[in-house]
Amino acid sequence: MKEIGYKIKEYRINQHQTLKQLSEITGLSTSFLSQVERGESSIAITSLSKIADALKVDITSFFLPNKQKDFHIIPSDIKQFKINHSNQEFKRVSSEFENRKLENFIITIQPNDRSELSMHEGEELYYVIQGELTFFIENQKYVVKKGELIHYPSKHKHYYVNETDFPVTVLSVVTPKLF
């Protein structure tokens, strides 16, 4: 997470913004932003998205560049990352090209771990590669097992949780693109 903080600071300084200005635009406290920039605090994807918007950069610019030379993606060659206080491991498996609409991840979710409750424009699709994952969409509960999929409009309140004793691996395809 330190690399993300350093990149936030670099973009902010290059744009001649103070922490206070960034705070006012994002609604995040100056002290929190300072801690993130120093690598002393982790950051939720929603907060990182606000910062990217405020700095007018693509959220992917905060992560190590994907060294793809073509559209062929080999997940084992991609560096994993974690977000916030989660134990979930993400591998971004999206190609970089102009006007891309989809954001693709392979996510490993540890037992009892969950995503944030969210609601936004777009769609989400999850294919369970290994294990079983429970989704809550509005007031409905869905248990999705290995080889099954779930696809829903993201405008509904939603989150997922691994209610099992084993790690779960999923392929996630979402819009709009996050990174």
UniProtKB/TrEMBL annotation:
Domain of life, per lineage: Bacteria
Pfam families in the record: Cupin_2, HTH_3
Keyword DNA-binding: yes
GO cellular component terms, semicolon-separated: cytosol
Keywords attached to this entry: DNA-binding
InterPro entries in the record: Cro/C1-type_HTH, Cupin_2, Lambda_DNA-bd_dom_sf, RmlC-like_jellyroll, RmlC_Cupin_sf, TransReg_Diox_bact_type
Molecular function in Gene Ontology: DNA binding; DNA-binding transcription factor activity
SMART domains, per database record: HTH_XRE
Transmembrane spans: none
Official protein name in the record: DNA-binding protein
Annotated organism of origin: Staphylococcus piscifermentans
